[in-house]
Design goal:
By secondary structure, the protein is of the alpha/beta class. Helices cover about 45% and strands about 25% of the residues.
Length: about 270
């Protein structure tokens, strides 16, 4: 009888040891899988540095002040690079005319571009975008004493200044049948055309029109509605899926931790 008891006790003990071992193995396996999944979600195959390009005359998004490139976009992309963990090639953001940005991304001259670039289906065919980071639209500006122009319809038969390669140029060409559309490479030329009387109006991105009028263009005013609401996105050369994902994650983090709001409030005031 004692022998049977000892045999039973040994069998139970062995069974308990097997259960504990299996449980530990399953827990370790589950824990390992969880860590791998977590790492996979946050890990991207990125280069150490990327070539970043912008414009230098789109106030207040990017412009030169005291010899330095500054503005909302400039501060934002630097914060995104820090958060995502990559360097800006050469430590400096390159600049080019706005109409050269998309071709530069297509030819791999640049990796990333931020310059108030509107997200459009046409551009999506040749470049990739981040998630939207700014909501904008188009606005009309005229001389302060102009009472004839109050809407897009009033631009028929008039001369309108805008920027070369912009969505405002496309919008004007699509919506006006009898207007002269003068396109300029530099934004200061666009506003100067209205100020010197060679153009009747300017049409361009609303934040820039508003900023110019409030800080520089004392002789100008904005009129009409906000046309063609559009979002700005960070443009990325095709074939960089991990970079797009890393930038989107970094942008989301900056919005969550308040960094985005700090940069926004500095250049535009509180959104409240």
């Amino acid at each position: 009888m004692k022998k049977n008891k000892w045999s039973l006790l040994i069998m139970v003990s062995a069974f308990l040891i097997i259960l504990v071992a299996c449980g530990t193995s399953e827990e370790d396996s589950a824990s390992g899988e969880g860590e791998d999944n977590a790492n996979d979600e946050a890990s991207y195959d990125l280069e150490d540095s990327y070539t970043v390009v912008s414009d230098n005359s789109f106030v207040p998004f990017e412009f030169v002040e005291d010899g330095e490139l500054t503005g909302f976009d400039i501060e934002l992309i630097k914060a995104i690079a820090d958060e995502a963990g990559f360097e800006i090639e050469g430590g400096e953001i390159q600049t080019t005319n706005f109409d050269g940005i998309i071709p530069g991304l297509q030819t791999q001259q640049f990796d990333i571009a931020i310059a108030g670039i509107s997200i459009t289906e046409e551009r999506k065919q040749v470049i990739d975008y981040s998630e939207p980071y700014y909501e904008s639209g188009l606005k009309i500006g005229v001389s302060a004493d102009n009472e004839d122009i109050n809407s897009i319809e009033d631009l028929e038969g008039k001369t309108v200044a805008t920027r070369m390669g912009s969505t405002s140029a496309d919008f004007l060409e699509e919506n006006l049948e009898d207007a002269t559309i003068n396109q300029f490479e530099q934004l200061d030329q666009v506003y100067l055309a209205v100020e010197n009387g060679s153009a009747d109006a300017v049409m361009y991105d609303a934040p820039n029109v508003d900023y110019y009028i409030s800080t520089t263009g004392d002789g100008l005013k904005s009129v009409g509605d906000l046309y063609q609401a559009e979002n700005y996105g960070i443009a990325i050369a095709k074939g960089n899926e991990d970079l797009v994902a890393a930038i989107n994650d970094a942008l989301a983090t900056l919005k969550e931790n308040g960094t985005y709001d700090e940069i926004y409030n500095k250049w535009f005031g509180s959104a409240e």
